[in-house]
Amino acid sequence: MLVGCSGGADSLALAAATLFERRAAGWRVGLVTVDHGLQPGSAERARGIAAWARESGFSPVDVRAVHVTGEGGPEAAARHARYEALDKAAAEHGATAVLLGHTADDQAETVLLGLARGSGARSLAGMPARRGIYRRPLLDLSRDVVRAAAANATREPWEDPHNTDPAYTRARLRQALKQLDHALGTDLPANLARSARMLRADADALDAIADAERARLAQPDHTLSAADVQELPAAIRTRVIRGWLLEAGLPAGVLAAAHIDAVDALLTNWHGQGPVALPRGHVVIRRHDRLRIAGGPTPEPAKPIL
Questions:
Q1: CATH 3.30.465.60 spans which residues of the chain?
Q2: Could you tell me where in the chain the CATH 3.40.50.620 domains are found?
Q3: pLDDT by residue (tens digit) across 63-80?
Q4: Hey, what's the torsion of the CAs at 128, 129, 131, 136, to 10 degrees?
Q5: Which CATH code fits 2-183?
Q6: Would you say 133 and 35 are in contact if contact means Cβ atoms under 8 Å apart?
Q7: Confidence band of 159 (pLDDT split at 50, 70, 90)
């Protein structure tokens, strides 16, 4: 397995714990660190983490430099580049798992961010403890507990200045969470993380029901019967619509709740309205009691051969 390590206290604690556990479990443990190139000295810092990892007994040790660019702002672009690098490292080294150092506080911040954006239950369910090859073994532990454990690591943790820079959404959210926790007088991060676990169980059950309904209602021409779908409960109906759109090739990252609501209105508030425009040039049309997806990305014209 590979440990994803930024050099921060959380990931150093995870690395130290994994080294300790591997002795009894007989694991082969490697480490991968991603250099986002967003701050001065990032390459040198990545090399320092790699040197520490080799001295500590990790093998293999991998440094991945990425170019951060793309949609959704710098935080989303950095996250996308990081996971893409971790995916490639896992594939090249034949890793069966990649361990990440997210804590209950990170989970609470994710839930609050979902609430602020008006997201549904799936988003409010936060980060899963496991998905695919990724594992988050510290997700039920508070940041304070994990950082206290980092004192046992043989390397001084690095504090990312972006974590306290108000220019970044996550940093502002972290400060807001502290203020809410103080104002409410409860262990808010732990309570939000607990809510995320319950919402994930609910969302998993609803998704399973929606998948079964979508399979039952599937048509060879990839249309949906308005009469059949509009009778479903709203929580199931909107999931059926989303799954139908994903099957048509729309990327999950570009579908917003507003898009799903607009398609849903073709079922629940039908009054002859025109097509619903979706990202990447797709549209959904209701004709003769059926929903149909049309359009799509417009191919670039062929360049002339000179």
A1: 218-295
A2: 2-183
A3: 999 988 876 677 888 898
A4: 120
A5: 3.40.50.620
A6: no
A7: confident
The reported pLDDT for the residue numbered 296 is: 67
Q: What is the CATH number that goes with domain 218-295? A: 3.30.465.60
